[in-house]
Amino acid sequence: MESCLVCAGSGKLLGEFCPLCGGDPDFAKDPATLHDASAAVNKVTAFGVEGEVDYDKLVDEFGCSRIDPALIARFERITGRPAHLLLRRGIFYTHRDLSLLLDDYEQGIPFYLYTGRGASSEALHVGHLVPFLFTKYLQEAFQVPLVIQLTDDEKFYYKEKLTLEEARRLAYLNARDIIACGFDPDKTFIFTDVDYMGTMYPMVAKAAKLITFNQCHGVLGDNILANIGRVMYPSIQAAPAFPGSFPTMFGNRKDIRCLIPQAIDQDPFFRLCRSIAPRMGESKPACIHSKFFPAMEGPNSKMKSSVETGNILVKVLRSESGTFGFSIDNDLTIEQVTDKTLKKQGLDLYQKVSAVNGKTVASIEEYKKSVEGVNEFSILVALLPSTIFMTDAPGMIKHKVTKFAFSGGQDTAALQEKFGAKLEVDVPYQYLRHIMEDDAQLEQIGNDYACGIMMTGQIKQICSDELTRVVTKHQERLASVTDDLVRHFMDPNRASLRFFSPDQ
Ligand code: TRP
Asked: Which of 86, 245, 452, 493 is the most exposed place for a label (fewest CB within 10 A)?
């Protein structure tokens, strides 16, 4: 059996195109089906990223267009403000039909923004914030409505152990972080799939009828085989791209277009979505894609939110002076390690003690009781995840950056002065590219660091300071997000949302 030349694997080649994709370029070659399983590098699917990411290769294989300087200039002309730093610096780097959407916009055809998040953890990490901050800029620059889909159902289908109730709880918790990004309360609607399904269902059903099992499998791969929720799900992520999913906001209008800011790994879903749009009598949504926020471990990987679980067992001995060589605070968190052998065993700041001599300890009192009068014992401590969470305290951020951030600098000061740093692989510098506002300052730092005037320690310090600024600002905003405000954002019936159909 030969594969279709366009969609590469979703159907047999009969005649020119396979009957499933009809030759639609949105179905052009998908890495999930093109790469053979043994090619470990550069696998990006909707379900995860393995190995190093080659973003150039992705453009070619996913068949999207690059955002070039001319398009950025056009953005600035239309909106009358400088392009967002993520756009200027090439972090949002490809698109589908963005130029067409802007053409239409200039002709007076309105659009709305759609983005989403699958809540899989309590706290967001810094990388989660990036697409939302960009979406906020788009909303401000174009003064358009925004819908945000929280996919409690998706996570339920994809996480074996997650209950639907827990997925919903996480979605509501994440809604608070999203609101804290500063979206316009008059123009933003946030919903969870489980809650909003009734209203959205006509569009979901219409989408579902047009997607065959083979198309779904062709685009998303064997991941969908585990349960039929996963087979149905792409129609649920597709529906909000059509104005009919929001009748109280847009009435029956079909001429309103949609722009979807997203990380590049979401593109398979929207290729499916775009391919069915014409048959639904809808316009294809435009897409704008970002690269991933790099993980601490290296610049070409994606930051993880599922905490890297791991514990270490540390043997502790009483010294001659009577101390144990480390101290913990009332939360059982390591606050100081003075003994070298403990450090060698991996004991470090911010790790949390969970057991003594194999027995679980849940409070400082229990801990004290189990070590009383003994000269030798073992403790089980949880390793610290390297990811920077929006809940981290400044000290924790500094510690994580210092300890985990992959450096492009040289090993010694002398070598650094001589050869300088490799900026492309230096994680602290790459983080600054995502969050430091001032272009001139960033350039100066880049130049000084690349030519060896600046040391790795200095760049890590600047990076921690900038991360702390972003995280602290977020925590302040989050503290003022009330239950009432959450309810407000999740109410689809507000008059202020009837933006394009005032007489509805
Ligand atoms: N599937 C996305 C995730 O797992 C969530 C999502 C739903 C989304 N709709 C979207 C992301 C639209 C970007 C744009 O995070």
From this structure: 493
Mind listing the pLDDT tens digit for each residue in 16-60? Answer: 445 455 556 565 544 443 333 223 234 566 655 555 677 877 677
pLDDT of residue 41: 34
Angle at 309 between CA 303 and CA 311, to 5 degrees: 135
Please report how many Cα atoms fall inside a 13 Å half-sphere around the Cα of residue 318, on the Cβ side. 10
| Closest alpha carbon to 137 in 46, 305, 259 | 259
Q: Which of 47, 115, 305 to mutate to test the pocket of ligand 1 (most atoms within 8 A of CB)?
A: 115
Ligand 1 centroid, distance to 229 Cα (angstroms): 16
Assess whether the C-beta atom of 237 lies below 6 angstroms from ligand 1. yes
Q: pLDDT per residue over 444-460, tens digit each?
A: 999 999 999 999 999 99
Q: Encode 342-371: b = buried (16+ Cβ within 10 Å), e = exposed.
A: beebebbebbbbebbeeeebeeeeebeebb
Q: Is 116 in the pocket of ligand 1 (CB under 6 A)?
A: yes
**Residue 45 in contact with ligand 1 by CB distance below 6 A:** no
245 lines ligand 1 (CB under 6 A): no
pTM: 0.87
Angle, helices 126-142/427-435, rounded to nearest 10 degrees: 30
Q: Is the CB of 262 under 6 A from ligand 1?
A: yes
Closest Cα partner for 156 from 213, 239, 226, 238? 226
Helical pair 126-142 and 69-79, crossing angle rounded to 10 deg:
50
Displacement of CA 443 from its chain's centroid (Å): 26
- The number of beta carbons lying within 10 Å of the beta carbon of residue 42 is 18
Question: How far is 178 from 181, CA to CA, in rounded Å?
Answer: 5
**How much of the chain, in percent, has pLDDT values that exceed 90?**
76
Question: Under a CB-based contact definition with an 8 Å cutoff, are residues 263 and 434 in contact?
Answer: no
Can you say how many angstroms the Cα of residue 417 is from the centroid of all Cα atoms in its chain?
36
